[in-house]
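Question: does this match?
>
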Amino acid sequence: MLCRIHNAALRKLAAATVALTLVASPAANAMLLDYEAYLGSTKVGEARVSIDVGEEGYEISGKAQSTGLLGLFGKWKSFFNLRGIFSFGKPVASAYEVTEETAGKKKEIAYEGDKVHVRKNGKARNPMALPADLDFYSLLFLSDDCGDERLVHDGKDVWHLKTRVQKDINEHRKYCEFDLRDENNERSVAAVWIEQIGDLKVPVKVNLEGAMRGTFRLKDHALD
């Protein structure tokens, strides 16, 4: 149960977790962010995320995996890569690839345009329509405001997201709190601290309570 709950959190919010090899070689000017994931005080995951933003659009890529005791009982890892553009100042992914491996099983989700392709253990499923315009990776790493009510997806599943709280802590840091409900109406609350790091505003801490739970934070970064 612990493994299932936390692996879902890692997958669905995408910002899991320190210093791993990227799916693709990052561009020279890409920002690299190392994250760690915790259940309580126990470290259970780690990831490195590469974010490259240019005049023509953006690319986000990386790798995440379970570690420690969770890794021993349910080894999980995920590779992700997406490319997109900014439409009216908002990120919109145009190509998206995620691969998950756990307990000898492999799941691949990819889309380009408006069709989603899913493969499980090498077996392709029928293409599906894209469930929503905004994906979790673009939302988490490139949406520098709390926004309002919207639908977000991970390539296959979709969630209803509604902003509960938004406030500026100081000129460099913002706090957002969201209500998340999946297609089964299971509810989670996500608290996100966003901070200016270099040229980008990125999450430095994410705390999940409810159906999904856990804490994700930028490695070696203190919240004053």
Observations:
- The first helix runs from residue 2 to 13.
